[in-house]
Amino acid sequence: MTDTRQDSLAALLGGRGGALDASLPPLAFVLGWLLFGRSVEAGAVAAVACGVVVGAVRVARGARPRALLVSVTLVVLAAYVALRTGRPEDFFLLQIFLNAASALVWAVSIVVRWPLLGVVVGLVTGQGTRWRRDPDLLRAYRVASWPWVGQYVLRVVVFGALWLAGQVVLLGVMRVALTWPLQVACVAVSWWVLRRALPDDHPGLRHPRDGHHPREQD
Fold first, then answer.
1. From which residue to which does the signal peptide run (predicted)?
2. Does residue 207 have a pLDDT over 90?
3. Count of Cβ atoms closer than 10 Å to residue 22 Cβ
């Protein structure tokens, strides 16, 4: 029987490739902006071109075209905002709003007892929402979802401060630093919390136990 030590979140949620790829267009924007006389137009072209190339490579490797279309669309929207305002730091404005919205959605999901970590793992493992009938798993997913809220809040604080200061280069650097490295750290912390929250005799993430919803005290 598979236990929580054998079924890690990193294995269930996949590798860091997608998060790493997402950090490349912002880096291309900053490089294009710097290399072509601090031109927002050049930065926008570089970012969109990078996004298209990354998307094409991932599709060729078997990734879902729909998900990559969304990621390229977000790059195009970010470039459009910067072009409209003429401020290079505004390329990162969409990311700030998306991270703020993600933090809010994850926090609300915990409060309403539908923690998104459980929803995602349930979809990946094919168990649907059976985990909600397991009081131990429901509680563990709620607790382990808070690190995800924390990573989004951290990005909002750091990106927001740099955006207000107009630090375009640092925004690009921190966009890379707070993408896949932070996500890897978040998965590790969330996995540790999840393991600590589950009883020792629990059969694991893939084996939710049926039971009545407890009246939670946390």
1. none
2. no
3. 20
Q: 3-state class of 8 per DSSP?
A: coil
| Strand, coil or helix: 152 | helix
Per the document, the length of the chain is 218
Could you tell me if 153 and 4 are in contact, meaning their C-beta atoms sit under 8 angstroms apart?
Answer: no
CA separation for the pair 137, 52 (Å, rounded): 40
Q: Mean pLDDT score of the chain, rounded to an integer? A: 87
Q: Decide if 175 contacts 27 (C-beta within 8 A).
A: yes
Print burial letters for 70-108: b (CB count within 10 Å at least 16), e (below 16): ebbebbbebbebbbeeeebbbbbbbbbeebbebbeebbe
How far the first Cα of the chain sits from its last, in Å, is 30
- Residue 213 pLDDT: 45
Mean pLDDT score, 71-98: 96
Kindly state the greatest CA–CA separation across the chain: 64
pTM of the model as a whole: 0.85
Tally Cβ neighbours within 10 Å of residue 58: 18
